[in-house]
Amino acid sequence: MNTKLAPAVVVLSQNSVIVGRKITNCLPGAKLYGLVNRTDDVDISFINFGETLRELFAAGTPIIGICAAGILIRTIAPLLMDKGQEPPILAVAEDGSAVVPLLGGLSGVNDLARHIGEALNTKPAITTTGDIRFHTALLSPPPGYHLANPEHGKKFIADLLAGRKVKLEGIAPWLSESNLPIDENGELTIQITENLGNYDSNCLVYHPAKIAISLTHPEPNTITQIQQILAESNLAAKAVAGIFAPLHLANNSQLQAIAKALGVPTRFFPENQLTELILAVTGADAQIISSPSSSIAVAISTQIINPATRGQAQGKLAIIGTGPGASKWMSPQVKEILAAATDLVGYKTYINLIGSLADGKRVHESDNRVEAERAYQALELAATGKYVAVVSSGDPGIYAMAAAVFEVLEQYHKPEWQTIDIQVAPGISAMQAAAATIGAPLGHDFCVISLSDILKPWEIIAQRITAAATSDLAIALYNPVSKERTWQLAAAKKILLEHRKPHTPVILGRNLGRKGEQVKVITLEELEPTLADMRTVIIIGSSHTRQIQHGENKVWVYTSRRYNSQE
Labelling 3: which of 30, 110, 303, 555 has CA 20 to 30 A away? Predict the structure, then answer.
């Protein structure tokens, strides 16, 4: 396949999810998009089919619709402007019996259709004449080759179909093993070269990814120096396979800017010596191009360079919040991270919450109380070039793994950890979920306090409860009761009753977004340790928290925003 972005597999009904999963499982990074209220167990939910498809198309995302071809065509039609910029668009039958490439002939749609067809044991309905006759797609070469002059492709293929022969200059097995009418005296020419050339309508030029560039001290003018080296050596920038550098530069912004300017990936090695590094990429028989800077080396390999097999990628560590548990409360950002991650680190119960999003990942489970050990393991994995997602429930920055990771990062000062790209992806917290279910008890100033005295003494907790109570803040209590800790909630209640009225509304939210969800309203006077556990979040109202009846069976609780009067 010749696609730059991971595909979106779009389903409109639950009947299509099974086939959709078969497709996402065979396409690395692919995400399953499902219509809200009609599909479950999808990666990303959407409400408006037309808007979603047009946004994906505009972003250049390959689209595989498990639906009628007509609805895809009519939805995308207003955006059809430039054939050369169209991403692959395919329609797949709900039962997987048909795979129909619709658009994206220049971006590998037929290869994508064949790949999906293999996964579904279905022969794709490919109708492109050149593809069928020559058993190759000249306008969408395989990875490792770049077509330099696609504007001449249409006429070139038309001439081939009209019976003209083609001369092949250079080595490209995908062409020499095809059904192209190859003749050393052909009127047309195909060149496979890393050099720049004079392109005309009778010649297609493909640049093979054989050039490696290694850097040891990137600077603002390094990209200019690289371009000068390539130009003086008559080398095409599109033949550059990647930027290769010592591992300690993985987080270097100049290096990242250079790779972005050239449109190539970066890979990293432990070697610091320039010659050792470049030969590790290209092999001992490579041609080393001289450079004006001792921090730049350019080499031409005798073979296509696949960057994914050289060195390692920059490690990534994402600390994510899955929300309370329900898939509908998981953010699109978190789902995208889970789709891209190679490794998942977390408490087994939390990893189980993400369901099929864990499929195909290396899962590293641990006990709930070993946060520091889990953080250390995640950083170590990421330092080897893996994309690691540390899975927390709720929001990872609220009594969860984000703080644990940064604590460990600061404690150990390991140089290899400095190379990791770290991000925190927020989630819906338990207090937000509980509050939303019952109304708006956190509608004005509030605070959050954990009753666990494992990491801080009870004296500190008691001081904070007292301060919050005297300040008339609504209070969200986390970790209220465990098997070993049963007295803290009773002690907290005693402090609160010194400053709050007995009828103050209290919300108990348990197993939010999961099986057995319970949200109920009681009074502060009724609050007892037997009503809560570690899966419960408790919200204590302020003096301005109100409870109102709505209809016969619904009670809403909210904290007023107005402080014009006191009770």
Answer: 303
